Amino acid sequence: MSIGYGFNRRGRPLSPIEVGMLLKRACENGASTAECAKSVRLDASGVARFKRIADLPDDIRHMVDWGGGSDFVGFSAAVEIVRLKGAGDQRAVAEAIMANNLTSKEVRQVTQLRQRSGRSIEACIQEVVQMRPTIIKRYVFIGTVPSDQIEPLSAIPQSARDSILKKGIEKIGIEQASGRLGVQFFTLVGDERFDASMRRIGKETMESLLQGHISQAFVDVSGSD
Questions:
Q1: In which element (H, E) is residue 218 found?
Q2: Which of 33, 68, 90, 151 could in theory staple to 74 by disulfide, Cβ–Cβ 3.0 to 4.6 A?
Q3: Sign of the C-alpha dihedral computed for residues 207, 213, 217 and 219 taken in this order
Q4: pTM for the complete prediction?
Q5: Alpha carbon distance 208, 142 (integer Å)
Q6: What is the pLDDT of residues 19-43, one digit of tens each?
Q7: Strand locations in 32-145 (E)
């Protein structure tokens, strides 16, 4: 496994969370931080950052990916989120990253405001967003995965899960949406056309259709064996 920060996304088959979980597991099984750092071509502080993001709540983990984007939480932003103590605050910021396309620098500002002022996380997010000359609104939907699919989903990498969700989005006809499929949750992000699709299809119906697609994806695979 090679992870060094200089690698581009194409050379990284694992998500940051998957890397963090592997490094955490290696240390729990007796590997030293120095050994882990050498194996992935990072320094000790880099290994520590990966291990920290592995402790994010389950409904945030699947959102984390390399780089920065408007439909996921970038690694640098995830490292900032971990600085927040409460899982509720962490979830609020993760959603705000996708809804408002927050940069890692802005996430750091939100975190610092929360820690120094003691105001609600929502107030801190709003203050940082209002500092911008232009505000762009995006829509975020978080759904649950069928309970009987949690085990099979946990056995495949993030990239494979995302491929399943992408096909479901296309099949159902959800417009201008992208997303991430986790083990217990999935997330969809998009612009006004995505919001229009949600209103047209209905949030509960959309979630149910995607749950059915996820379940059927594994039926199709087992049937082809």
A1: helix 203-224
A2: 68
A3: positive
A4: 0.81
A5: 12
A6: 999 999 999 999 999 999 998 888 9
A7: 64-65, 73-74, 139-144
